[in-house]
Amino acid sequence: MSLRPPQRFSNSFDADPLERALDYEVLAEKASTLGRLQKRLEKALVRLEECSADEADAQSTNGPAYAQALAEAGEALWYVVIQRELCGLRVNAAFYRDFRVPRSVILAMGPASASKASQAKTPQEK
Length: 126
Fold this sequence. Notes:
Helix content: 55-70%
Number of strands: 0
Distance between the termini: 71 Å
Shape: elongated
Structural class: mainly alpha
Mean pLDDT: 82
Number of helices: 5
Radius of gyration: 21 Å
């Protein structure tokens, strides 16, 4: 019995050159988008760190600035995880460790919306 390797690993010399060029362009765009999204996540994590340091000085760790920064970081992480999956990178534990993503951001991962911001307000502000 003979086994045939998956087409993904087969010799691409017999593929259409235009198809190969298109595949290359798509792959390059995916990688570029992932890089941009990771930079956005880095900036959001820095803002979150600054907010938590500022609010630690003010003795309030659940202020609206921190909640907004947490929602933005959660959304940025969500975009990065989706793009990583599109690029075929499915394991995120090492990524979280390398980027030093706090557990609170992982738990807040998802789309930031106006409803999240209003839920994040403290009872005194409502």
